[in-house]
What does this fold into?
Amino acid sequence: MANKILVVDDEPNIVLSLEFLMKQAGFQVRTAADGEAALAAIAAEAPDLILLDVMMPRKNGYEVCQAVRANPDWKAVRIIMLTAKGREVEREKGLALGADDYITKPFSTQEVVERVRELLAEAD
Amino acid sequence: MMNYDVILVGGALAYLGVLFGIAYYGDQRADAGRSIIANPYIYTLSLAIYCTAWTFFGSVGLAATTGVYFLAVYLGPTLMAMLFWFVLRRIVRITKVHRITSIADFIASRYGKSGLLAGLVTVVAVIGILPYISIQLKAIAISFNLLRHYPEVRMAAASAQQPVWADTTFYVALVLIVFAILFGTRHIDNTERHEGMVAAVAFESLFKLVASVMVGIAVTFMIFGGPGELFQQAAADPELAALLHFEVVPGGYGGWLSLLFLSMMAFMFLPRQFQVMVVENVNEAHIRKAIWLFPLYLFLINLFVLPVALGGRLIFSDSDVDADMFVLALPMIEQMPTLAMLAFLGGFSAATSMILFETITLSTMVCNDLVMPLLLRAKSRWLAGRADLSGLLLGIRRAGIVVIILLGYLYFRFIGETYALVASGLISFAAAAQFAPPILIGLYWKRANRRGALIGLSGGFLIWLYTLLLPAMARSGWIDISFVEMGPWGIEWLKPYALFGLEDMNIYMHSVFWSMLANVGGLVFGSILNRPDPLEQVQGSQFVNVMERERHDGDSLLWRGVVETSQLYDLLARFLGPQRASEVFDRYGQEHGGYPLQADPRLIHHTERLLAGAIGAASARVMISSIMMGEVLSIEEVMTILDESSQVIEYSRRLEQKSRELEAASAGLREANDRLRQLDRLKDEFISTVTHELRTPLTSIRAFSEILLANPDMDVEQRSKFLGIIVKESERLTRLINQVLDMAKIDSGRIDWRIETIDLRALIQDAINATSQLFCDKAVALHEDLGERPATIVGDRDRLIQVIINLLSNAVKFCPDQGGEVTIQLRPLANHWRVAVIDNGPGIAHDQHKLIFEKFHQVVDTHSGKPQGTGLGLPISQKIIEHHEGRIWVESALGQGATFLVELPGK
It folds into this structure.
C-alpha cells in the first residue's frame, strides 16, 4: 500500500514539481493551495506525511502544523515544513510546533525525496 | 464768653468720647470675630480720611482766591480710584501675604527687608508729614478761637505772639496726644490692624460730610436764594466772575497737572492713606465698590465748596475774615448757632481723624523701623535679657505719638502759621509723593533693588527739603530770606524755587519735577548699576509676581538653621505677650496637627510673619536669626548667612539642573537606540521578505531543472511545459531583482533622474502600447479618455512610464477573467494633471488603501488566494510620483472596482 502524501503550497509551480517528484517516487499524492484547504484535505483523509509550506494565505504552515498536532487522531502524520525564509529561528519554531523535519527552499529534489522516505521508514 | 468756651470744649470732648466709644465697640466686635468694618461702605468711608481740615475749611479758602483750582486735589484721587483694580489690589495682596504693617514696612520688604530703607522711609514720612499735622492743629485752634467770640466774627491774633501756655493750639495738641495714646496703643496687635480706629474714622467721614453739606445747603438756600441767585451776584462782580474760569489757576495747566499728580500720589502713599487703604483692608473685593463709591463721596463733599466760597467773598468783601474760615464764619454772621457748632465739629472731626490716625501710624513706624532696629543693634544684650518686650514697644509708640504731635505744633508755631492751610498741606503731599517711585516701580520691575531705592528716595527727599521745606523756613524768618531770593551764598542757579535756572514755575511743580527726576533716576540707575543680593531678588520677584501665585512659601526656604519651638514661643511671647503667643501657637498646632519640637521652616516663617506684624519685617528677621544662631547677629551678619545659604541653594539648583540635563540626554539616547532597533528590525524583515520572494521562483527553477536533468526521456509535451515554467519563473526572478535594485536606488537617493519636458498624453499612449499584449491575453477591454491636447509636464520619462505600466498591469491583473474592463483618463486640473486608472476588479478594502503602498504588502487575489506580483510595484510608483512632487492614491471599496489616481504638477 503506497504511502499518502499531502503537498501544501500556495505556489502552483512548486506544488507541481513536488507532486511530480512524489508520484515518481511511488507515493499517492494530493495537493492543497492554502492552510484551510490543507486542513480540509487532512480531515477528509489523514495522509501519512505532509509537505507543508509556511508562508500561505488563510492559515499559514505553523497554524496548520499546530492544528494537526492538537488532534490525537493525527498523531501518526509526519510533517515536513518547507520555507523560503532561511532564518534559524524559523526552523526552531517549526520543530517546536511539532514538525518532524524542515527543508529550506530552494531545495534539492533528491534530498526532498530522501527525507520523505526516511521519515516514512522511521514511522513504520 | 466763658460760657461758650465750656460749650465748645465740652462739645469737642463729648465728640471725642463718642469716637472713643465707637472705636472701643469696634475692637470688641473684632475680638469677638464679628467685624463691623467688613463691608465696602465702611471701607470707602475710611478712605475719606483723605478729606481733612484742609478739605473742610481749606478748599473754600482756596476756591475763594483761585476758583476751581481746588478741584485738582479731588480729581487726583478720582483718577487713582480708576487704577485701584490694577495697582491697589496688587499692593493689598502683597501686604496680606507678607503681613506688612506700614508703608515703611512695605518698601523695606520689597527691597530685601532692608532695615536702612525702612528707617529712611520713616524719617521722610515723619518730617514730610509735620506741615500736614500743623495745619490740622491750626484749623482746630482758629475755628475754636473764632467760634468762642460768637456772635462776633473776629479773627484771633497769631499764636506766635502769645506764650505757649496761652496758645489754644498747644492745648489742642495736648488733648489729641492723650486721645491718640488712648486710641492707638492699648495693646500690641500681631497684625497691626485697628478695627476700632477704622470704625471711628468711618464715622468721622460720615460726620464731616453731613456737616459740610448742611453748611453748604444753608449758605446756598437760606443765606442766598438758591444757586441761581448766588452765581448771579458773583457774576456781577468781575473779580469773582474770574474765579469761575480756568485762567485764574496759578501756574496754568502745569499747576493743574502738578496738583493732580501730587494728589494722586498723596492719596495712595501718605502713611495714613496707605494704612486705611491697604493695611486695614479686610477684603480685596471691597476695593471694587470703592472704585466708584469713593469718587462719589468726593463729589458730595465738594459740591458746595464754590457756593460757600463765593458767598463768603460776597458777604465778607470788606472784612479781615480769613477765607479758610468762611465755612464757620458764614453761619456765625447769619446768627445760626447750631449750624456754627456743627461746622466747628465737622472741621474738628476732619482734623482729629487725620491727626489721630496719622500719628498712630507714624509712631508705629518710628517704633518698628527706627527705634527697635537701633535698640537691637546697640543694646541687643540688654534687650535679650528682658522677658516681655510688649510693654517696651507700647512705651516707644506712646513716646512717638507725643513727639510727632509736638513737632507738628512746633512747625505750626514757627513756620506754618504764615501759610494758608492748603499751602502747608501741599508741602506734605510732595513729601509723600517720594514714596511713589520705590513702590510703583518696585511693583512691576524686578530689577529694582535696595541700592537704587535708597539713592532715589534720599535724592528725592533732599530735593524736597531744599525746594520746599527750607524756603518755607526762610519765609518764616528762620533762615535769611536772601536764601530764597538770591540763592545760597548768592549762587543764582541754586535758588530753591528756580533750581538750575528752571524759573517761572509753580513752586510745587518745580519741586515735583526735580525731586521725581532725582527719585526715579536714582532708583533706575542705582538698580541697573548694582547687583541685588539674593534676598532682594527673592522679595522682588515675590512682589512682582504676587498676582500669579496663590500661596508661596518662598521665604521659608531661606531659613536653614535649627531652632527649637520653645525658643520661638519665648520670642513671640516677649513681643506679643504670653497670652497672645500661646493662642497663636495653639492655633498653628490645630491647623497643622501639632508642632514639632524642632521648628520646621514653615513654623519659623509663620513666627517671623507674626513678629513682623508687631515689629516690622526687618526687625523680625533679625530677631529670628538671633535665636536661631544662639546669639544676636548684626543685620549684616544675617545678610551674610542668607547670602551663603542662597549660594548653597544656587549650587544645589545647578546640580539639579545638571542631573536633569543628563537624564534628558540619556532619555534621548534611549529613544535613538529604540529607533535604531526598530530600523534594524524593519531592515531585517525587509531582507527576510526579499529573500523569501527571491527564493520562491528559484525553488521552481531548480526543482524543474533537476527533474528535467534526471528524466532525459520525458515526453515532449511535459518537457516543454516544465521548460516554460522555468522561463516564466526566471523572468519573475529578473523582474524582482530589478525592482529591488530600483527600490534600493530610490531609497538611497542614488538614482539618476533625467528630467525633461515631456507630454504626459504621449507618455500614457506609449505605456498603453507596451501593455497591449497583457490586455489581449486576458481579453480585457481598455477605454482611453485622454483628451485632445498635449499635457506638458516636467519629469523623468522612463520612470513615469514605469508607473503607468505598473498601474495598467495591476488593473489587468485584478480584472475578472471574463468581461474585464479598464479605463484610463487624463484630466487637467487647476495646476495639475490627473491620471486615473479604473478597473472593474474585486476592489480594495478601505483599511488596505494605505497599506498597499508599503513594501511587499500584497493584495490577496480572492480568486486564486495567491498574491500576485512582487509587492514592490506600488511602493516604487509612489516614490517616483513623490519625487515629481505629485501624489498617488487609490479610491475603492470591496466589490466595486478600484481607481488608482496620479496627480502631477503641470508645467
